[in-house]
Write a structure and sequence with these properties.
The chain is of the alpha/beta class. Among the domains are: about 140 residues, 3-Layer(aba) Sandwich (Rossmann fold); about 120 residues, GMP Synthetase, Chain A, domain 3 (2-Layer Sandwich), CATH 3.30.300. It has 19 helices and 31 strands. It has a 7-stranded mixed sheet with strand order 5-4-17-16-18-19-20, with helices on both faces. The protein has a 5-stranded parallel sheet with strand order 7-6-8-11-12, sandwiched between helices. It has a 4-stranded antiparallel sheet with strand order 23-24-25-26. Strand 9 and strand 10 form a beta hairpin. The longest helix is centred in the N-terminal third of the chain and has 17 residues. It is globular and about 70 Å long. The structure holds coenzyme A and adenosine monophosphate. Coenzyme A (COA) binds next to strand 9 and helix 12.
């Protein structure tokens, strides 16, 4: 069957389609049916009993794959390569789970994981899954305040962290960040487990902190605890319009079925194959395609602690693909742009034998045609863009290599995957004609694996995703579908920006800037950037009577965002202006400001209060080199 037949088969009988896909999972109790009309947006396989860790680890050992490498750790920063077999992984994970259980972690308890790209991060995730505990991984590039916000939202019983992370030329001291976050948070975890790395041994707090190894000494390994199909597997926080991150809930059974299906259908990966997603466990790509999906499939996954360039050179991706005979490789377009900038003629690519690589997958941000064409030319394999979000956990639109490689149209992530009825709607919620730009929405129900709600926030879930277009899930992306059914993702409809494949909230940055004593009002927008896709830029209106040099205030604001949100925000650009452009009802015209910064044409908003302010914005931008500096 080709794509068309598979998609039609799902349309004709979604229930049968997903029950068939469910056969790929080992159930403790099989689901009686696929879809359950319950919860804010429906649930999948709710009456089944199953364990995620059993499916990702134990079943492969039972099937005779115990000696196969499950996780390959590649750290060009520490110059080390280390493989962990499925058998070893089973022993390590069941031991950690046993120790967590001995300290009181049980099914349903939350555990925050704050770790860099080391295999122990995956082991911590799997140990939680083994117990039915709900993990929430926090990206290492976030500062203490962001960690504190998440601690208060999901109220974890325990936090598992590492002593440090390693960025090129810089040790990221995790422990002081962890201590500061616990200090700031109202909720206090009962205990912390700290994986002490060679590069830094952190000081432990007596009675609260345990070292990873000492903690496990002499404990009884834990067996897999069966959980209900709709039990939350994890919570992953993502940026929304406001400063408060959204806790996306991932349901256990739908997650297993959808990811297991996607590994073969989308990435063409089966047991024994080698797969690498060069992302971070702190993001959804890391959850789905570094940890869970490759392990569910019985493949080898790579945990990479490094950067596409500078660790030590722009050939590091190709070296790892060659050495580990990677079959499907997944990265973000920004990583390729970084490589291309240093190696425009692909000289490093020629140094390595990439015969086993069948395709390159891109996601996380719009894959710009220039980058896609460069990769096509130099790698000689299909370059497959696919589009998804933290909320969905797997591709909404893609090119299913394991079913049929559809003709690639550069600039499009190809077609909707089975399970997704993707539509482009006008403001009134009516489907628009092919080629017409609109809001992209998905007809309910969403497929298995996607979010059933937000953690402890059903109302926010309904308001954020289901209320604007009744009967649909609103993706927050705008774009169009062409005559051939190819989807094009062009922009966000909200104030979320995408910086180096990282989804960030301008609202969160505005909250931080507004807390500076000299800032009366502010706005943050995304400006185009050649490398990172977008960069945040702040507009600051200072309090009356503030006579301090603008450069000084800006420097403090940059520091503040770094300290409060984290280095990952990459907030380095700001200008002082007298006033912000607004509508008559007081809404800041961020979209118009972004167009001016990017040098794009814009329509004077009909509701603008004072058009002259746009000239002031333009003059302030010219003074710092925009729009010339915008990509
Ligand atoms: N822990 C602590 N700090 C981190 C971090 C982490 N896990 N990840 C990034 N940072 C820091 C960086 O050190 C940098 O700090 P600096 O301001 O002191 O230089 C800052 O956050 C911005 O990081 P980054 O966006 O990675 O920019 P960069 O300039 O270091 O590297 C790229 C640029 C393009 C090479 C890099 O962004 C990249 O590899 N992007 C791919 C992203 C990706 O795979 N995303 C996954 C989504 S699918
Ligand atoms: P995240 O939740 O961090 O994965 O970010 C999801 C958002 O990133 C989407 O809503 C899009 O705005 C953007 N995005 C992800 N993949 C793509 C893609 N292939 N093309 C265009 N935008 C993308």
């Amino acid at each position: 069957m080709g794509y068309k037949e598979v998609y039609s088969a799902w349309q004709a009988d979604p229930e049968g389609f997903w029950m068939d896909a469910a056969k790929g999972i080992d159930w403790v109790q099989s689901p009686s049916k696929a879809y359950f009309e319950q919860g804010p947006a429906g649930e999948w396989f709710a009456d089944a009993m199953v364990n995620t860790c059993f499916n990702a680890v134990d079943r492969h050992v039972l099937a005779g794959r115990g000696d196969q490498i499950a996780i390959m750790h590649e750290s060009p920063i520490t110059h080390s390569t280390k493989g962990i077999t499925y058998k070893e992984l089973q022993a390590r994970v069941s031991s950690l789970a046993g120790a967590l259980r001995m300290r009181g972690v049980e099914k349903g308890d939350r555990v925050i994981i704050y770790m860099p790209m080391i295999p122990e991060a995956l082991e911590a995730m799997l140990a939680c899954a083994r117990l039915g505990a709900i993990h929430s991984v926090v990206f290492g590039g976030f500062a203490a305040h962001e960690l504190a916000v998440r601690i208060d939202d999901c109220t974890p019983k325990a936090i598992i962290a590492a002593s440090c992370g390693l960025e090129p030329g810089r040790v990221v001291h995790y422990k002081p960040l962890l201590d500061a976050a616990i200090e700031q948070a109202s909720h206090k975890p009962e205990f912390c487990v700290v994986f002490q790395r060679e590069q830094e041994v952190a000081k432990l707090v007596e009675g609260r902190d345990f070292s990873w190894h000492g903690f496990q000494y002499g404990v009884k390994p834990a067996e897999c605890v069966p959980v209900e199909g709709n039990h939350p597997a994890y919570i992953l926080y993502t940026s929304g319009t406001t400063g408060a991150p959204k806790g996306v809930v991932r349901p256990t059974a739908g997650h297993l079925v959808a990811l297991n299906w996607s590994m073969k259908a989308i990435y063409n990966i089966e047991a024994g194959d080698r797969f690498w997603a060069a992302s971070d466990v702190g993001w959804v790509v890391g959850h789905s395609y570094i940890c869970y999906a490759p392990l569910l499939a019985g493949a080898t996954t790579v945990v990479f602690e490094g950067k596409p360039v500078g660790t030590p050179h722009p050939g590091v991706f190709w070296r790892i693909i060659q050495n580990h005979r990677i079959k499907s490789f997944f990265t973000a377009p920004t990583a390729l742009r970084a490589i291309r900038r240093e190696d425009p003629n692909g000289e490093y690519i020629k140094r390595y034998k990439l015969h086993e690589m069948q395709a390159l997958f891109l996601a996380g941000e719009r894959a710009d045609p220039e980058t896609v064409k460069w990769a096509q030319e130099h790698l000689g394999v299909p370059v497959i863009d696919h589009w998804w979000q933290t909320e969905t956990g797997w591709a909404i639109a893609g090119n299913p290599l394991g079913i049929e490689l559809l003709p690639v149209k550069v600039g499009s992530p190809t077609k909707p995957m089975p399970g997704y009825d993707v539509q482009v709607l006008d403001e009134g919620g009516h489907p628009v004609a092919p080629g017409t730009l609109g809001a992209i929405a998905i007809k309910l129900p969403l497929p298995p694996g996607t979010l059933p709600t937000l953690w402890n926030a059903d109302d926010r879930f309904k308001k954020s995703y289901l209320s604007h277009f009744p009967g649909y899930y609103e993706t927050g992306d705008a774009g169009y579908i062409d005559e051939d059914g190819y989807v094009y993702i062009m922009a966000r409809t909200d104030d979320v920006i995408n910086v180096a494949g990282h989804r960030l909230s301008t609202g969160a940055m505005e909250e931080v800037l507004a807390s500076h004593k000299d800032v009366a009002e502010c706005a943050v927008i995304g400006v185009a950037d050649e490398l990172k896709g977008q960069l945040p830029m702040g507009f600051l209106c200072l309090t009356k009577g503030c006579t301090r040099p603008h450069a000084e205030v800006i420097k403090e604001c940059v520091r503040l965002v770094r300290d409060q949100i984290g280095p990952v925000a990459a907030f380095k650009l700001a200008v002082v202006v007298d006033r912000l452009p607004k509508t008559r009802s007081g809404k800041i015209l961020r979209g118009t400001m972004a167009k001016i910064a990017d040098g794009l044409e814009y329509k004077m908003p009909a509701t603008i209060d004072d058009p002259a302010i746009l000239d002031e914005i333009s003059a302030a931008l010219t003074a710092i080199g925009y729009p010339e500096k915008a990509a």
